[in-house]
Amino acid sequence: MNRAWKRKAVVCGVTAVAVVLTACGSDDAGSTGDEESADELEIWVFSSSAPPVIEDGFTAAFPQYDVEIVEVPIADVTQRLVVALQGGDDLPDVVQVPLRESGGLFATGQFLDLSEELGPMEDDFADGILVGGNGEINSFTMGPGNMGLWVNQEALAEHGLAIPDNPTWDDVVAVARELQTASGGKQYLFVQPPGTNGANMFNAFFNSRGGTWWDEDGELAVDEDLATQTLEFMVGLDQEGLVYHGVWTDATYWDAIRNQEIVGWTMNFGVGSTSLQENVPEQSGQWQLVTWPTWAESDEQRTGVFGGSLYAGLDGADNPQGARDFIMWWLTPEGLQAQADTLGLVSYRRAAEEIDLDIEDPYFGGQNVRHDLASVPYPAFHFFHWPETEAAITAAVDQAYAGDLTPAEAVEQIVAELSAL
Amino acid sequence: MSATARRSARKYPASAPYLFIAPFFVLFVPFGAGSVLLALGISFLDWPLGQPPEFAGFDKFATVLDDPLFGKAMGNTLYMLVGFLLALLPLCLFVAVLLKQLRRRTANLVQVVIFAPITMSLIAVALVFDLLYNERVGFVNNVLDLVGVGPVPFLTDADLAPWSIIALRIWRVLGYYAVILYAGLQSIPDEYYEAAQLDGAGAWQRFRHVTFPLLKPVTLFVLVASSIAAWELFAEVQVLTDGGPARSTLTAVMYIFGASFEQFDLGKGAAASVLLAAAIIVSTAVASRLLRSDDRA
């Protein structure tokens, strides 16, 4: 190679390196752009009621953030999040996650640790409200799924029946039997939905007795006798014909409420109060909330968990400070009010000091159902391996109801499946 | 080379045919072949959520094959596939033969009617069937009630639920495949039937010795296309039973979805996808061979 060609080669090489460096530099330029767009905050939500309160409340409190709210259907949110995390691109700064899916997600270690912010406030929340993985606190549960017994007292009164004060489950079952006799087996005080909703219903009953499948470290921690007794109780109700089989997502369910076939069922605030008022407004004044009955007179009253949601920040996203500000905003007076307005129940114990939660609800004859539901202690519960756990419970509970397994065998089957994980 | 061919060769460049088929490959290479290769690649990776992937060899395949749920899902899928095909093929053939007996105008009208279900949204169809199957207010149970039967727990009984899914699928695709078979029937020359009739063949013999053998290529297409769709059963099950009761309708694709997007194990999901693809290829090869070997016999 002569000198001229060598010179050309060197020039070409230098030019190539310069082009590559410029290209890399464009990323730096991107980061300059990032600095410019550091105030952008992308939030994925599935609750349709959330965007207006975020737009009005949060953006007013933090005008430095250019908030983009992306509404994602609840069924798609985890799938989209998985794709975004695996792609490592287009991550939202904050995502709303169903509580039941939080255990698996937080165990991946891809979420912001809010221990510094939420740790000092631990006593202001019930045991199971702060959630996280790997020893971190990643978020707090909003609209916790405290269960209650919703009763059409007017329909019961037509038969001269009523749920006694501070009832045990035996008291409620006694009323259900009388109702069965009085109505010729056409009215029900209990509902058992099929599939995963049924499994979660069983889980709420189990949980209200202090039962859990996993401990806080993700180790299997099932009290099998307690689980068996709980399932025996529920299968027993079914065998006695005291249970309506259906689910609130079916249109027919609300017809059954409308025609007083269903006169009571165990449920959280979202479906128990909000959906009831939306779907059957004509029954205003007929319903009451009975706080979760105890299993024996001497027992401490405790509710069960049936869902909830939370906001979590993504570790690898562009605006971690914005994510922290957003999550913590929900605990300011404006944020607490937004929680109360959109979700009903507020999990922060000191909320009543900040906002007016003394809300009498005319639909329930003036009863303060939010206060009454929240007044029952909320249990610690850990949603580890929840898709597998829920699937195992669903299959076994289905078989127990079908009579293919005894409750003891069903619980044994669940534990065997969970042990293999 | 003939004069016409020479004229054509002058008019179009040699690359013309390739340009005509290029649009297909422009889409197929990244989205078809690319996705398949990507899934194959991911199946050899351990790829925890949000972290860099690591090569895992055949570990994910071993995990899937060791998982009794995968066996259950594949077993359920195969069970529903066999039930579906055993019911679908004779029904399609029956409807196609019936169509051939009709006058052309009537046949055209009937084709439009029976073809309609395949054009409907699968999710909408599943929701309608959910109402039809309802134990308390469902149309089917109301009809059964008139004759003193029921209520039948179509979707909540582990033995019945798979068949309720099969019935939905048959209702949806019966017209589509029957129309394809009907087109095949029309391509069989009438002279064959006339000759068979002159030889004294009855209706069954004409069907067995004329219709069925000459319809084999079309039947093979129907068999392969419908069985591939049956292996990929997902949406209607997700809506109607969510894999229950007692996992009696858990399908292979539901297992893959669960592994990927509920357990966040993309490697496991991809490995299960590769195994499902292998099952589809094997079953297609078996179906082709059965019909072809019969031909030679």
UniProtKB/TrEMBL annotation, chain A:
Residues 1-29 form the signal peptide. This is Extracellular solute-binding protein. InterPro entries: Bact_solute-bd_prot1, SBP. Keywords: Signal.
UniProtKB/TrEMBL annotation, chain B:
InterPro entries: ABC_transporter_permease, MetI-like, MetI-like_sf. It is found in: Cell membrane. GO terms for cellular component: plasma membrane. GO terms for biological process: transmembrane transport. CDD domains: TM_PBP2. The keyword Transport applies. Its main location: membrane. Keywords: Cell membrane, Membrane, Transmembrane, Transmembrane helix, Transport. It is a multi-pass membrane protein. Residues 74-287 form the ABC transmembrane type-1 domain. The chain crosses the membrane at residues 20-45, 78-99, 106-129, 160-183, 214-234, 270-291. PANTHER family: ABC TRANSPORTER PERMEASE PROTEIN (PTHR30193), INNER MEMBRANE ABC TRANSPORTER PERMEASE PROTEIN YCJO (PTHR30193:SF37). Belongs to the binding-protein-dependent transport system permease family. This is Sugar ABC transporter permease.
